Records
---
Amino acid sequence: EAGVTQFPSHSVIEKGQTVTLRCDPISGHDNLYWYRRVMGKEIKFLLHFVKESKQDESGMPNNRFLAERTGGTYSTLKVQPAELEDSGVYFCASSQGTGMIGSGNTIYFGEGSWLTVV
Amino acid sequence: QKEVEQDPGPLSVPEGAIVSLNCTYSNSAFQYFMWYRQYSRKGPELLMYTYSSGNKEDGRFTAQVDKSSKYISLFIRDSQPSDSATYLCAIYLLGSASKIIFGSGTRLSIRP
């Protein structure tokens, strides 16, 4: 079974440009999450989709970030315009449910999309 | 104050040593505790989880939670070079919002 897949794995863009990151969750997982780790900081929650609906977007840093999950399958995270402080690794994760861990609700992470803004 | 505090290391020990990794958390309402392992250039991988005080053992790994002192520990026995990775303690918030609060991670290196 394929894991969480993210594209691109690495991206270098100039300040002010736009970047779109894509995430394909594990098949059948209704829950999709975005996290990110910027330099020197811990991994932080950005948002949570349940199917195509945003369940919690409290971690989105500002309106330069737009996440979508049309059709409840893959998701995109667009950064427009990108700033230097957006550099870091963006992780996508998915889970079947949101109940107690160990009840088939483990959250699985992708390998991340490494973004460098210069 | 951070919700989860973790010593970033790095920590280097010889093969076969017992490793102790520790975290503290701030909110006594937290109930679910996890340890993730992250290899270089990979995503975090769930290693162990627990939702009560006490010890939970899985092979060479033991997770320990002390809710009275808000302390989380991971012990690795008979450490192997393949255990070299970054270990992240984490809190799982379960409710209307479902999200993970991570510590900063401890980089561990096991010397052959």
---
Amino acid sequence: NAGVMQNPRHLVRRRGQEARLRCSPMKGHSHVYWYRQLPEEGLKFMVYLQKENIIDESGMPKERFSAEFPKEGPSILRIQQVVRGDSAAYFCASSPLTTGYIEQFFGPGTRLTVL
Amino acid sequence: AQKITQTQPGMFVQEKEAVTLDCTYDTSDPSYGLFWYKQPSSGEMIFLIYQGSYDQQNATEGRYSLNFQKARKSANLVISASQLGDSAMYFCAMRDGTQGGSEKLVFGKGTKLTVNP
């Protein structure tokens, strides 16, 4: 059973460009979380999605950031008109559709560098 | 709001000795979960151990154990018999278990552990 896949692993963008980060959850997992880790910081929650639904986007910046998890295909975190402050590691995590103890399985992360 | 505090930015330990990494938390929810993750220099997040708020016993996973003191709201990680490969950042996290909550994780700032030979 493959783990959570994220691509690309490293992404370089110039200011003003768009960044698209992809996350394929573990097989059978229908819950996806996105977190951002700034240098020397812990991870901060951004958004929680289930298939075709955004459940909690309380951690998403109001502008330029969007996320989706379509019925088919990976979850996408999209950052429009990137700025230097967007440089960070972006982690995706997935969990199965069960209640109780819910471990989140993390992907390897995408390191975004904005020049 | 939920909060995780890790007061030790860095810790050093000699190989084969035990080390305790501190974590305190703040929540008003009766149901919550506490996690520890390891992040080596390669950057991935590795799950180590979990403690549920209603668990009667402290969690253990191999060389990792969690010293859960509910009244003091602390969930310290104990690593026994440290190995050089344990050198990494360690993050304590809490799951938001509120009714209708998203189960998102709230992370502390982390502790950098260095194991000396």
